[in-house]
Design brief:
By secondary structure, this protein is an all-beta fold. The chain is built from no helices and 19 strands. A hairpin with a 4-residue loop joins β11 and β12. It is elongated and about 90 Å long.
Length: 338
């Protein structure tokens, strides 16, 4: 029996070296060659989706060569001179338009030291197995206040409104109940001079016809002041000095019993106020990128929405009086920019 013999390739040689062929090393990774790697982005176009504090700005670009896995985006902080990675630039996130161009989004967080200065964006393409491309830098831009001169409204249907109302009265009428509330709406206008106006709307009904407050549709208007604080790059909204609108606190309201003129909100009472509130802004601007642009959505303007107004509709004037207590608050509330 003849013994078989085998030889091992010498170190550094290819197993097929004896056959007269060789396989070159591939620094780009398995299956990737230099011609598959993307090139530095070109044809940059700045897209001001929402060029405001806390808003969204984007770079539109074409990428020559191979198809990238994602675009890495940095924002230049003008206060520090540092390039900072964008929230939307995480691995695996890529937006490509039907014309083949790519869109890289940046969230625009600002501080007091940078809010009036010029920002910039830069972008590069990434593909696993390829070295990063060179950076391509877009033009400079500035940002503005996200609320000044805007109006936001929220509507809350009965399914999302928790209302437990109790009416106590002294004098004529009944308040048997039970009571419920629906058709709730809150509208806020932020004026550029730092003043604001807000209106709360809701309808109270009772299971018993003839009860006080049954089918009363309220539109309660207040005025006050607003400001934004840039806390660690996150805008904080402060609402203060909130009091009934002079001469028009219940304009648009309808209620037969009790009379609107007898409500606490229509009296010269300095105690009728809505408490000062503060909340961090949370605004989704991505609907603006839809083919048919949608409206930006804000999570909350802060405070005890609707509930704070209940004591203001008490009947406090005339011979008969009535109080309104309990609670009314939304399970979910979203404000849409008008």
């Amino acid at each position: 029996m003849m013994a078989c013999s085998s030889t091992s390739p010498s170190p550094g040689s290819s197993p097929d070296a004896d056959a007269g062929s060789s396989t070159p090393s591939n620094p780009e990774g398995p299956g990737i060659t230099a011609k598959n790697c993307p090139g530095t982005p070109t044809n940059l176009n700045l897209v001001k989706v929402a060029p405001v504090w806390g808003g969204v700005v984007a770079l539109e670009a074409t990428v020559p060569g191979g198809v990238p896995e994602f675009l890495e985006l940095h924002v230049l902080d003008p206060a520090t001179g540092e390039w900072i990675g964008s929230y939307y630039s995480s691995y695996g996130v890529i937006r490509q338009k039907v014309d083949g161009t790519y869109l890289a989004l940046a969230t625009m967080n600002v501080r007091e030291a940078s809010k009036a200065k010029e920002f910039k964006l830069r972008v590069r393409a990434r593909l696993q197995g390829c070295p990063p491309t060179g950076w391509a830098e877009g033009p400079g831009f500035t940002l503005t206040d996200p609320l000044a001169g805007t109006t936001w409204t929220a509507q809350v249907s009965g399914a999302f409104l928790n209302a437990n109302l109790y009416i106590g009265h002294n004098g004529a009428g009944t308040s048997t109940g039970p009571y419920s509330a629906d058709n709730a709406k809150h509208a806020v206008t932020f004026n550029a001079d730092g003043s604001f106006a807000e209106t709360y709307e809701y309808t109270i009904t009772s299971a018993v016809n003839g009860d006080l407050y049954n089918n009363c549709a309220f539109q309660l208007s207040y005025v006050g002041s607003w400001s934004l604080r840039l806390d660690q790059g996150n805008p904080q909204l402060v609402l203060a000095d909130r009091k009934p609108k002079p001469g028009g606190a219940t304009t648009g309201s309808t209620c037969s019993a009790p009379p609107l003129a007898d409500l606490a909100i229509n009296q010269a009472d300095p105690a009728i106020r809505i408490a000062r509130t503060s909340t961090y802004l949370s605004i989704d601007y991505l609907p603006l990128l839809d083919t048919t642009p949608g409206k930006p959505v804000m999570g909350s303007v802060g405070g005890d929405v609707f509930n704070a107004t209940l004591s203001h509709i008490a009947d406090v004037a005339g011979g008969d009086t009535a109080s309104v207590s309990g609670s009314m608050y939304p399970n979910d509330i979203r404000y849409y920019r008008q």
